[in-house]
Amino acid sequence: MKKILTEIKAKKIYFLISVLIFIADMVSKYFVDKFLQPIYIKKIIGDILVFAYTENYGVAFGFLNNLPETVKNIMPHLLKIIVAVAMVLIFFIMISINPKKQKLSMIGFTMILGGALGNLVDRIMHGYVTDFISMGFNETIRFPYHYNIADASITIGIAVIAIGVFFFKEDFEKKSETEKIKEAIKKAVEVKEEDD
């Protein structure tokens, strides 16, 4: 536990950024829920950027949104569990990453954590995720799905990790077999000393 707290303190800027992404997402959804629903569509930058209120019961970009009613009733609960587990995994990945060696991966996971938290809280509060951003060139040539700040953050985060891994050869530190044996012996000795 002490090691985890030390790592959180050392990487507090990344966790703070995750919190800021979460806040930006929740604030935007609050205003969309409050002011956009009755209007439904609001042009922000001509046809390029349009806000269009959508309730998303599936996952990012409306994927799995058009499911049969029986499955649709189970899906929100299942997604809550999946996202919560994924967030715990992302948290521990962030704890284990060395930001000096894996800067892009750390930034990517930071963005994913903030976005995942935003969508999870929205899903817990409403049973769905509020999507509202629609982009395109005109009424016919548009990105087929609406999304929100959390979705955008998750997508960009995945892209940043991919760039880090594939173009900058960032990789998680791999421990040699000797290091693993040394760690196992050290843990065994610590356990024995506690028993004594």
Automatic annotation (TrEMBL):
The keyword Cell membrane applies. It is a multi-pass membrane protein. The active site is at D131, D151. GO terms for molecular function: aspartic-type endopeptidase activity. The chain crosses the membrane at residues 13-32, 77-97, 104-125, 145-168. Keywords: Aspartyl protease, Cell inner membrane, Cell membrane, Hydrolase, Membrane, Protease, Transmembrane, Transmembrane helix. InterPro entries: Peptidase_A8 (IPR001872). It is found in: Cell membrane. Its EC number is 3.4.23.36. NCBIfam families: lspA. Belongs to the peptidase A8 family. This is Lipoprotein signal peptidase. It comes from Brachyspira catarrhinii. The gene is lspA.
